[in-house]
Amino acid sequence: MTRYVASAELVPRVAAGETAAIARLMSRAEAGAEEAREALADIYRRAGRAHVIGITGVPGSGKSTLVARLARMLREEGSKVGIVAVDPSSPYSGGAILGDRIRMTELALDPGVFIRSMATRGAMGGMARAVLDAVDILDVAGFTTILIETVGVGQDEVEIAKASDTTLVVSAPGLGDEVQAIKAGILEIADIHIVSKSDRSDANRTLVDLKQMLALGVHASAKTEWAIPVLGCSGLSGEGFDEVVQAVRRHREASLASDLGLRRRSRIAQFRLQKTAENLLAQRFARASASLAPALAARLLDRRADPYSLAVELVTTALREDADERV
Ligand SMILES: Nc1nc2c(ncn2[C@@H]2O[C@H](COP(=O)(O)OP(=O)(O)OP(=O)(O)O)[C@@H](O)[C@H]2O)c(=O)[nH]1
Ligand SMILES: [Mg+2]
Fold it and tell me: The pTM is what?
């Protein structure tokens, strides 16, 4: 058994890049441990240097394959790369990708790469909070580029992809309905569009369709400082990846050179504050309402009162009791 180490003690070890300390503090953040709150506040104040890249797309669009190759290329340039995969079916834990076990294992064994998989369920206090805490921990640990992989389905996941400096939206050929990305509401969050699997013969069709749709203009609005590129690439062969890395770098530069990046970060700060407050409110409400709900529900059951009025009563009473408790 390893000795229990207080979270506050882990912070300097995280800052020194110690792998075990990084993993431990991430687990505590994910579990929503009260004890870790001060340490995470410290982490937050120290973070903010890394380039955070969100990669999203429909299931099976090739995100993990792209992330693995991107990580390797960034490593070759000397970046330290953190990967956070919000993905129940993430292949990282198994170490296999496209049957490409050896190279993925190489990546996992590289001390300049840290890979963390997070299950969509189980993060106490919300997925977005857990992911952004993990990103900050990696940032403080000296990882210069952090890749967040999240499937572009569901509001939480899409919000996480948006809470990055640069967002890549991956579309793939052969998934049937090409309009999937629009339906999922992720098309408009792209800073860079990727059409993956360009080694396939039907990839060009997807690329042309996507470009045509973007040319219709609905999504091309506002972002005047940045023309959104549409790039084809293959995680399998590596074709097109130089352009992807270049586009990512150009977006970073454009963000730093204009107020594009500042606006983005201020939006993320608002989102983060809002999410954290919502979680806090939900936790306090759950605690305070637990004892009140059964009696109110009984009145609902025999139709002495209606759901809306009782809900108002429940919320008002629970929040008052919570406030009283804190005086
Ligand atoms: N031909 C070809 N197939 C690819 C390429 N990249 C990924 N694939 C295939 O697409 C499947 C999904 O790849 P992943 O990288 O796991 O995709 P993902 O988007 O991470 O999938 P989820 O995380 O499950 O949503 C794999 O089983 C591969 O067979 C590529 O560049 N070319
Ligand atoms: Mg994946």
Answer: 0.89
